[in-house]
Specification:
The protein is α/β, with parallel strands linked by helices. The chain is built from twelve helices and five strands. The protein has a five-stranded mixed beta sheet, with helices on both faces. Strand 3, helix 6 and strand 4 form a beta-alpha-beta unit. The longest helix is centred in the middle third of the chain and has 17 residues. The model has no long low-confidence stretch (mean pLDDT 94).
Length: 245
């Protein structure tokens, strides 16, 4: 993503589904595909997610929308590394973040834990247990939540109390941001403790922006990624609470 001079853009946050998303390569080659292949791509949930979020952005008056699945060329390790290191800032600079809750069918945001309905995600929508969505909740000024049919079901400010219950993040951090809150390393780490990522390395990479550090991506390094993250945090911070992790 080339950062525009006029940074008026919306951004999408969602739960990736393996094999259901549309890649950058597929998106730019869509019109050149054979009809059968193009129809297969256009019927994927990920493609419908792109269309719906684009429609919402247009409705809200934005000319630009950024979506990780189709705006990062993952064939380029350099571009992928730059994107991951810039991700927090891109979400922070967005005018609004659209959070897609694919497992919520109701027209209202769930306010009570439901272990039967959300049995694989601690009783809440799956979006709240994924590693990358932590920064995607905290960084943007505004987050609007949508159910699986793309019906708006609330925003970060309106739902701050419920979101705090779900995530452990203080309401004032959700409404006013992190500046001046005196948050410790251990406190921020605790928000991520029960979150999951598909790749082990992403547990570390998804936290870089929250701690203001940068480091190269080395997929295949496993748990060493988290050790490198800790070392980078120690390098820039004197907060001893990191040793609790």
């Amino acid at each position: 993503m080339k950062e525009p001079r006029d940074p008026s853009y919306a951004i999408l946050s969602h739960r990736w589904k393996e094999g259901m998303e549309v890649s950058y390569e597929e998106m730019i080659g869509l019109m050149k595909m054979e009809e059968e292949k193009r129809k297969e791509v256009e019927h994927r949930p990920g493609y419908q997610k792109i269309i719906k979020s684009c429609e919402q952005a247009e409705k809200d008056g934005y000319e630009w929308l950024w979506i990780d699945t189709c705006c990062i060329d993952k064939r380029s390790s350099a571009e992928l590394s730059e994107a991951i290191n810039s991700m927090y800032r891109w979400y922070q600079n967005a005018q609004i973040c659209y959070a897609s809750l694919h497992d919520v069918g109701e027209s209202t945001f769930p306010t009570k834990k439901d272990d039967d309905k959300f049995d694989k995600s601690n009783g809440w929508p799956e979006w709240f247990v994924r590693g990358w969505t932590l920064q995607e909740l905290i960084a943007p000024k505004e987050v609007g939540f949508f159910n699986k049919d793309w019906v708006p079901i609330g925003n970060k400010r309106q739902l701050a109390s419920t979101l705090s219950t779900i995530t452990g993040i203080p309401s004032e951090v959700l409404t006013d941001g992190r500046d001046g809150k005196g948050l410790s390393v251990a406190q921020i780490m605790s928000w991520a403790a029960n979150r999951q990522t598909t790749r082990e390395e992403d547990r570390a990479y998804s936290l870089m922006g929250l701690f203001g550090v940068n480091m190269p991506m080395l997929y295949g390094e496993g748990k060493k990624a988290f050790q490198r993250l800790q070392l980078e945090i120690i390098r820039i911070s004197s907060d001893q609470s990191i040793f609790a992790w």
